[in-house]
Design goal:
- Helix content is 46%, strand content 12%.
- The protein has nine helices and four strands, in the order αααβββαβααααα.
- The protein has two domains: 116 residues, Arc Repressor Mutant, subunit A; 45 residues.
- The chain is globular, with a radius of gyration of 16 Å.
- It starts with 13 loop residues before the first helix and ends in a 9-residue tail after the last helix.
- By secondary structure, the protein is α+β, with helices and mostly antiparallel strands.
- Strands 1-3-2-4 form a four-stranded mixed sheet, covered by helices on one side.
- It binds zinc ion.
- Zinc ion binds next to helix 4, strand 4 and helix 6.
């Protein structure tokens, strides 16, 4: 299934590699992605996931899919570039999480597989270490810890308002708060 050859490695845009120490083989961290976004004028709070895709040279196709499919990361028709497909029928906030999750696969796992298809995240993703990592990564990318803690304080722990700010589901906020060990206010 995995067929990674030198000639098919993703070509990252110039803005990505110029003056960077990153090789295209390197796995990207959340911090590196957010730095990259800032350097390219991409809004990071809340993160403009579509603009970040552009910076990374990843295509985006929004199409209706069966309800249980959130989206996927696959190779483009040219066999070189990467494309994120997202279920256009899902709520926009859910699509944001899906895109962030696929960015996670691109950043961490693209050397291991040529295709990633994702079903409903919080239900079945955790049993697979790669999926668990992608969910955690997406969560950190959309809700960086310091900003998240700040917004929880600003909104007095209201899950709904925090979710509204980050444009994610209330479930995503609950999971993020739990992973940060936050309790009290509405976050229990
Ligand atoms: Zn996945």
């Amino acid at each position: 299934m995995a067929f990674i050859r030198k000639s098919t490695k993703p070509k990252l845009p110039d803005s990505f590699s110029q003056g960077e120490d990153l090789s295209v083989d390197e796995r990207l961290t959340v911090t590196q992605l957010l730095d990259l976004a800032k350097r390219n004028g991409v809004e990071t709070s809340p993160l403009d996931v579509k603009a970040l895709l552009l910076v990374l040279g990843i295509g985006l196709i929004s199409i209706p899919m069966r309800d249980e499919i959130s989206g996927m990361l696959t190779r483009a028709d040219n066999g070189k570039d990467w494309v994120v497909k997202v279920n256009a029928l899902h709520h926009p906030n859910r699509q944001r999480f899906t895109i962030a999750h696929e960015i996670a696969h691109f950043s961490r796992h693209r050397f291991q597989q040529a295709e990633f298809e994702d079903l409903n995240f919080f239900r079945n993703g955790e049993s697979n270490p790669m999926e668990a990592e992608a969910n955690r990564f997406a969560s950190e990318l959309l809700m960086p810890e310091s900003i998240f803690r700040d917004k929880v304080r600003v909104f007095s722990g209201s899950i709904e308002e925090v979710a509204l700010y980050f444009r994610v589901s209330t479930l995503a906020v609950r999971v993020r708060a739990k992973n940060l060990g936050m309790k009290g206010h509405g976050l229990e």
